[in-house]
């Protein structure tokens, strides 16, 4: 492979491969997420300065946002986008970097939410199903259960080729929805659980917009940096290798199936945390919280933002929530589905890398003196 | 994109800060209206909005000496969507009074949200779940319409009067049918009726074949609490399977869909009794005036029904309550709306179908109709009013310590 | 699988099944046999819809998640045609043709340019399903549309031993499903186009190499697959009624049928449909709140032990 090809491979984003041809016998390129991140030393210093400004600005904005915005914007737009972004991040991780598009991420989030409602204190109008455990215990159990379920879903899905994953995870997700809808002894059926509320910790009520926003921000940042780290760690690199050429990785001695299931479990942790945040945000959970429309909405959010970088799902979530909240002021709220579906179609047809891809294309069009012509490139 | 949001937020914040100083706007009262304009209840939600708008039109857009500004929002019968829409109306659009939502599950969620906004008054739209005002009620959530169980009071006795001593219940498996069945059975069982089998059909299921196969031979009638269109589906399948038992209907069962049923057993529908908060053929002058007003303001060509539906009536009642309350306090919403709420809690509301007062949980004590399907001279089916039952409170006449909310197993008299 | 394991699994699955059958017949024979008939007729509907799905998937590796929307579209078209003309057969044909046309359009204008990009095609079908579903709600409204059976199929069949009466329309679904199955089999195995489709399922590149107009074959296949969905929609409009949400239900059913029965195999679709239809109906009749769990357990077991489906071939 020539040096230019190598650099090309290093600079290419994950999303391009996820949306492009997924032929099993793919020759060649194993790409990495962000080569510059892996290298320390002198290049690392200039890199630190290069990364620093952009990150600092965004971080400062995120931290200062609630101070200037109304509680409504903080809570309904800010916190909701962060929680949804976290769940969509799990999908981006699986799909963009693992090559497995799982439509069951919201199911995992729903399992976590239901567990919080069932094990913690929740109100349901007639049945006394909730066990009333202290909140930290309920949340911990919820995350563990959801992760186990995610691993199980992964185990079911990885035994077949890539394209089947969508089918199988969709079937699992919808089956879970019907289970929640029709079962009364555990899931309380159509009614679901109400009054599932965030606790008051150390005198701070996590139900209030400001604390909840910072809670969501904390976990989103944690998830984001964790994924960024993981992608550079051997596990993440191996995962991307498995995405590109499972046969070769197998020949190299990697246990492909175990890696994939582990990836599902990691994604499950993220989705579980997102699910707990969402159930606290809504204050209730019903079968529709993990219904088909939400399963697909998470996919839309991930694709909308772009699967080439972990920031994509959060961008997608912000756009989605803004559209959802303010659509009624611009167009009929009733036609929201049509709008979001058309936007999704347009993205998939014309810019498979989502908004990040559009941004990168615009940047490269206006960039001058770029040494390596990378039409979809850019190290971010 | 983040920069744009940031700038917009700054500008928005500045504007809000500039205008939020006053305790209440001098002239305009903002009322938020929430109904389901998406999904299967979309037609009902649209009619509900018409009912609410009619109430405002009848007072020429003024109440308590102040102008009314109506801000609409829509949901799709999902509780989380309803709460998001309500939150936007209350926190972003800054409404003073909130009217809505439409469906039972949404009502419970909005009631829970109302507890976080103690300075805004929330009035129900048409949600009819028992739990909204029975289980952890909210001090600023008012419901001027009767709920699902109250709608069925009187039907149990009417069924026994027809000789239906044993019935089978076929209803969907969620809160609203539970309350309807409870309203029917609490009286029916107490007067000696027997319900050997209850078939709870899973929501979304359209296949009634298994239920039909389980109908015992020795029941006299079927108590069918399904939505009008589902009832048609059920009747189709029941007829095709060779069944011929009479039906007793829930409040949304004997609707126009089933009355226009084209099947072979159409005539067997004649004589079906039901309990409902509205009856098209009710001939009291107040109600006829209401229907005429609806027809004048919303002609069929604009997409309205020939006659107001249940949703139009109930939303009309609740919005009228909101406006009458404003009249009673002469538009004074100061002091966290305390005087306004007191006025609402104490008032006797005059509605087209009788008087309504509120009980201690701010739930309506009102009336319901027992109807029967009859054929008119042209051979069309319509709902004739047998009698109107007044003064029904949420306890359905049962002593408070013996009262249990309707569920799959309550009440039981096999 | 060794003989020991074959015996083991047959006993593990067969014995509880046999026990259930004996108990069911003894407890309430009428209910048991009515449920059996219900299950088989439901399986007929599932088969018709899922066979279209598996045809498209088997040949073009395109997981058409808009299949449910096509079902809904066909159902609505059939409803309105039946209302206007009063002929059920005309409604069936109209449902089939309109859905086939839409499917043809989708293939020719969108999917043809994305060959090989399976994932992208699937995403496009997801987007299309959302758009089509919302357009249908916009145009037709979200109320339930219940189509009535034609007069010659309405009403009960009487005087059946043990059961006494059964719906004529539902009973007619059995021979209809078998007829469609036989027609499909004949089409795939006795016509030239069918031969090309089968060859394409096995090896697409080779098919193109032999000089066949692969795009034409794809277009025909997609049209037939979509048409079958529409045809199923008209049938379902009578039996189950049309309402937004039915598309998801039928899509899920098709997915499970195809996963259980084997991807790309029409006989597999028949096997999967019978298993799913019977399991679902018995679940609904005997344990309504857990019927979905049965379905899911079957799905999980098939995925665990035969990931390609019962009759699926290695890709």
* Quaternary organisation: heterotrimer
**Widest sheet of chain C: strand order?**
1-2
| Mean of all residue-level pLDDT scores of chain C | 86
Q: How much helix, percentage-wise, in residues of chain C? A: over 70%
Query: How many E strands of chain C?
Result: 2
Radius of gyration of chain B: 22 Å
| Shape summary of chain C | globular
Number of strands of chain B: 15
- Hey, roughly how much beta strand do the residues of chain C contain? under 5%
- Determine the structural class of chain C based on helices, strands and strand pairing: mainly alpha
Mean pLDDT of chain B: 85
Q: How far do the termini of chain C sit from each other? A: 20 Å
Measure the end-to-end span of chain B.
Answer: 64 Å
Give start-end ranges of low-pLDDT stretches of chain B: 17-25
CATH topology of the largest domain in chain B: Rossmann fold
For the largest beta-sheet of chain B, the strand count, sense and barrel status come to:
9 strands, mixed
The CATH superfamily title of the largest domain in chain B: Response regulator
Spans of at least 5 consecutive residues with low confidence of chain C: none
Account of the protein in words:
The complex is a heterotrimer of chains A (380), B (414) and C (315). Chain A is mainly alpha-helical and 380 residues long. Chain A has 16 helices and 4 strands. In chain A, the strands form 2 sheets. Chain A has a two-stranded antiparallel sheet with strand order 1-4. Chain A has a two-stranded antiparallel sheet with strand order 2-3. Chain B is of the alpha/beta class and 414 residues long. Chain B has 2 domains: 25-144 and 285-362, Response regulator (Rossmann fold); 150-276 and 368-402, Response regulator (Rossmann fold, 3-Layer(aba) Sandwich), CATH 3.40.50.2300. In chain B, α2 packs parallel to α12 (310-328). Chain C has a domain at 42-242. Chains in contact: A-B, A-C, B-C. The interface between B and C is large, with 32 and 39 residues.
């Amino acid at each position: 492979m020539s040096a230019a090809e190598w650099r090309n491979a290093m600079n290419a984003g994950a999303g391009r491969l996820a949306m492009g041809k997924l032929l099993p016998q793919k020759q060649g390129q194993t790409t990495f997420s962000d080569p510059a991140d892996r290298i320390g030393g002198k290049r690392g210093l200039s890199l630190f300065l290069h990364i620093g400004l952009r990150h600092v600005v965004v971080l400062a904005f995120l931290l200062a946002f609630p101070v200037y915005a109304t509680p409504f914007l903080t809570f309904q737009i800010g916190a909701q986008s962060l929680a949804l972004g976290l769940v969509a991040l799990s999908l981006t991780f699986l799909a963009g970097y693992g090559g497995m598009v799982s439509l069951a991420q919201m199911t995992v989030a729903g399992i976590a939410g239901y567990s919080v409602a069932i094990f913690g204190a929740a109100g349901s109008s007639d049945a006394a199903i909730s066990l009333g455990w202290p909140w930290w215990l309920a949340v911990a159990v919820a995350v563990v259960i959801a992760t186990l379920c995610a691993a199980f879903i992964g185990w079911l899905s990885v035994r077949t080729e890539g394209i089947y994953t969508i089918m199988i995870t969709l079937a699992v997700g919808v089956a879970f929805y019907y289970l929640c809808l029709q079962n009364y002894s555990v899931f309380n059926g159509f009614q679901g659980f109400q009054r599932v509320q965030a606790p008051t910790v150390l005198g701070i009520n996590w139900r209030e917009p400001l604390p909840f926003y910072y809670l969501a921000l904390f976990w989103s940042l944690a998830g984001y940096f964790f994924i960024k780290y993981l992608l550079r760690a051997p596990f993440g690199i191996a995962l991307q290798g498995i995405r590109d050429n499972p046969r070769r990785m197998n020949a190299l001695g990697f246990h492909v199936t175990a890696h994939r299931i582990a990836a599902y479990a990691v994604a499950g942790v993220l989705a579980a945390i997102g699910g707990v945040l969402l159930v606290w945000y809504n204050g209730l959970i019903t079968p529709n919280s993990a219904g088909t429309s939400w399963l697909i909405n998470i996919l839309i959010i991930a694709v909308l933002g772009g699967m080439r970088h972990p920031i994509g799902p959060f961008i997608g979530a912000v756009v989605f929530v803004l559209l959802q909240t303010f659509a009624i002021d611009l167009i009929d709220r009733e036609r929201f589905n049509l709008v979001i579906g058309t936007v999704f179609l347009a993205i998939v047809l014309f810019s498979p890398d989502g908004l990040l891809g559009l941004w990168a294309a615009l940047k490269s069009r206006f960039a001058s003196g770029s040494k390596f012509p990378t039409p979809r490139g850019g190290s971010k | 994109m983040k920069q744009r949001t940031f700038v917009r937020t700054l500008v928005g914040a500045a504007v809000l800060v500039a205008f939020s100083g006053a305790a209440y706007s001098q002239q305009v009262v903002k009322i938020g209206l929430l109904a389901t304009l998406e999904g299967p209840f979309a037609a009902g939600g649209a009619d509900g909005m018409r009912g609410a708008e009619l109430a405002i039109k009848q007072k020429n857009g003024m109440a308590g000496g102040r102008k009314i500004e109506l801000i609409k929002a829509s949901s799709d019968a999902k509780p989380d969507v309803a709460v998001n829409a309500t939150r936007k109306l209350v926190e972003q659009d800054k409404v003073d009074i909130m009217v809505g939502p439409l469906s039972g599950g949404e009502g419970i969620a909005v009631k829970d949200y109302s507890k976080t906004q103690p300075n805004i008054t929330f009035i129900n739209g048409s949600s009819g779940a028992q739990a909204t005002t029975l289980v952890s009620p909210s001090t600023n959530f008012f419901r001027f319409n009767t709920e699902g169980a109250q709608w069925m009071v009187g039907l149990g006795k009417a069924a026994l009067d027809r000789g239906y001593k044993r019935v089978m219940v076929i209803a969907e498996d969620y809160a609203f049918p539970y309350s309807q069945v409870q309203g029917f059975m609490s009286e029916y069982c107490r007067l000696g009726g027997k319900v050997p089998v209850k078939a709870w059909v899973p929501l979304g299921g359209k296949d009634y074949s298994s239920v039909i196969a389980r109908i015992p031979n020795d029941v006299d009638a079927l108590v069918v609490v399904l939505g009008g269109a589902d009832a048609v589906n059920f009747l189709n399948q029941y007829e095709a399977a060779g069944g011929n038992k009479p039906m007793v209907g829930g409040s949304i069962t004997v609707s126009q869909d089933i009355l226009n049923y084209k099947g072979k057993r159409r005539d067997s529908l004649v004589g079906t009794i039901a309990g409902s908060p509205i009856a098209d053929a009710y001939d009291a002058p107040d109600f006829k005036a209401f229907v005429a007003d609806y027809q004048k303001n919303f002609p069929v060509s604009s997409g309205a029904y020939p006659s107001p539906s249940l949703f139009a009536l109930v939303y009309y009642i609740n919005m009228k309550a909101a406006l009458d309350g404003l009249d009673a306090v002469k538009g004074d919403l100061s002091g966290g709306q305390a005087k306004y709420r007191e006025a609402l809690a104490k008032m006797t509301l005059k509605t087209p179908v009788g008087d309504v007062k509120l009980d201690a949980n701010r739930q309506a004590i009102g009336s319901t109709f027992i109807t029967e399907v009859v054929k008119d001279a042209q051979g069309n089916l319509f709902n004739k009013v047998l009698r109107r039952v007044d003064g029904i409170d949420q306890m359905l006449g049962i002593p408070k310590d013996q009262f249990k909310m309707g569920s799959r197993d309550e009440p039981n008299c096999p | 699988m060794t003989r020991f394991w074959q015996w083991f699994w047959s006993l593990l699955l067969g014995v509880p099944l046999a026990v259930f059958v004996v108990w069911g017949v003894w407890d309430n024979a009428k209910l048991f046999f009515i449920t059996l008939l219900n299950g088989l007729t439901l399986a007929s509907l599932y088969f018709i819809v899922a066979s279209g799905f598996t045809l498209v998937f088997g040949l073009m590796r395109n997981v058409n998640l808009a299949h449910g929307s096509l079902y809904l579209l066909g159902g609505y078209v059939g409803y309105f045609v039946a209302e206007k003309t009063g002929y059920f057969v005309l409604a069936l044909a109209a449902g089939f043709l309109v859905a086939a046309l839409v499917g043809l359009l989708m293939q020719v204008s969108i999917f043809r340019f994305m060959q090989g990009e399976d994932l992208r095609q699937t995403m496009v079908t997801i987007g299309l399903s959302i758009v089509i579903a919302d357009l249908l709600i916009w145009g037709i409204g979200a109320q339930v549309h219940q189509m009535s059976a034609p007069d010659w199929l309405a009403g009960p069949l009487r005087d059946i031993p043990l059961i006494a009466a059964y719906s004529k329309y539902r009973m007619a679904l059995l021979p209809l499903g078998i007829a469609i199955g036989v027609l499909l089999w004949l089409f795939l195995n006795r016509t030239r186009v069918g031969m090309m489709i089968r060859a394409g399922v096995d090896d697409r590149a080779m098919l193109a190499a032999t000089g066949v107009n692969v795009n034409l074959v794809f277009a025909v296949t997609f049209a037939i697959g979509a048409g079958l969905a529409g045809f199923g929609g008209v049938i379902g409009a009578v039996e189950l009624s049309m309402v937004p949400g039915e598309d998801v239900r039928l899509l899920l059913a098709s997915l499970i049928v195809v996963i259980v029965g084997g991807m790309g195999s029409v006989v597999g679709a028949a096997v999967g449909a019978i298993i799913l239809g019977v399991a679902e109906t018995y679940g609904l009749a005997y344990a309504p709140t857990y019927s979905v769990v049965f379905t899911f357990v079957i799905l999980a077991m098939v995925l665990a032990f035969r990931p390609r489906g019962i009759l699926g071939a290695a890709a």
